[in-house]
Every structure is written in structure tokens, then in C-alpha cells.
Amino acid sequence: MNSVKEYFETQARLFSQLNTAPVDQVIARLERARAEGHRIFLFGNGGSAATASHFACDLGKGTIQPDRPRLQVISLADNLATLTAYANDLGFDTIFAEPLITLAQPGDIAMAFTASGNSPNVVRAVDAAKKIGVTTIGFTGFDGGKTKNSVDLNVHVPINSFPHIEDIHLALTHAICEMLKLPHAPH
Question: Domain range spanning residue 42?
Fold first, then answer.
């Protein structure tokens, strides 16, 4: 990138090329989870952990509708004591899988945010979730990595740039929440 303008032009191009069909499927699965009382677990590393945390707030509070059940959302990146205990005692690659094994039940949703798609702790959590019977959703970039082929549903940003991927992932979470506030979210 040679300028701020070029950065935003790249971002605009990515948005215009984005396949939104998987995003619509994410919305439908979240609506189903809301209706059926299933929980949504969010996780990621670094900027993706921040996206997971931000999305947890927006889903949990920002989608409240008086005529519908509330979404039950947990960001696995937010409990520092649990995260560091697993990292210290069992290894960093267990920090999301172990809480999922403890908390998740069949029908719940595990949503991974990962630019590369190859973070060992994210891949391990997706594998653990699948063994439990949890629906797995990935938000990926680059070539999608191992996560792309492991999840039930993948939302992919086709670029090899962490900032662009993370910006689009966050924007998509905002769009998803806006759709979940509609009287009848599209499926």
C-alpha cells in the first residue's frame, strides 16, 4: 500500500467481490440458535480475539428484540484466568478446545475468527466442537488454511493481508447483527 486511499480502494474492491451467501447462512444459523436456545461460542487470536469479543457484545446486547429470545453468547477469548490456566497447564493449543469441551452441547455454535486459518488452538477447537456435535463456522482469510476445510460453514476474505481481513471480518459481524435486529431476518 502506498497511500490511505489505496488501502480503502482495496477494501472497497474486497467488499464488492465478497461472497455473501455464506454470511446469509450464518445469519440463518444464528436465528435458529436463538429460537432453539443454543449457545454461541466465539474465539480467535490477537485481532481476531478482539473481533470475537466485540461480536459477543454486539450479539448478546445489540440484537435484543422484545418479541424474540436473547442470543446466548460466550467469547472464549475473554476469560484471562481460564485462558492462561489452560495455556500454562496443558499448552496454548488447548485454550479454546478445553472450554468448549466443558461448556458446549450438541446444537450449539462454535465460531472461529482466524486470518490464516492455521492457528493450532483454533484448529483444535474446531475439531473438538465437531466431536461434540457443535455447528462450526469459520471466518478466514488468505487461502482459508486448515480451518476452511474443517468447519461446516466458512466465510472467506480472499486476500493475504491481516488488516484487510480483520477489517472485513469486523464489518461482517456488524452487518450480521443488523440483520438479526430485523423483524424477520433473511434466511
Answer: 20-180
Tens of pLDDT along the chain (187 residues) come to 689 999 999 999 999 999 999 999 999 999 999 999 999 999 999 999 999 999 999 999 999 999 999 999 999 999 999 999 999 999 999 999 999 999 999 999 999 999 999 999 999 999 999 999 999 999 999 999 999 999 999 999 999 999 999 999 999 999 999 999 988 645 5
Q: How many domains does the chain have?
A: 1
| Distance separating alpha carbons of residues 82 and 67, to the nearest angstrom | 35
Query: The domain spanning residue 40 has which CATH number?
Result: 3.40.50.10490
Helices assigned H by DSSP within 18-96: 21-36, 47-62, 80-89
Order of strands, edge to edge, in the sheet holding 135-140? 72-75, 39-44, 109-114, 135-140, 153-156
The reported pTM is 0.95
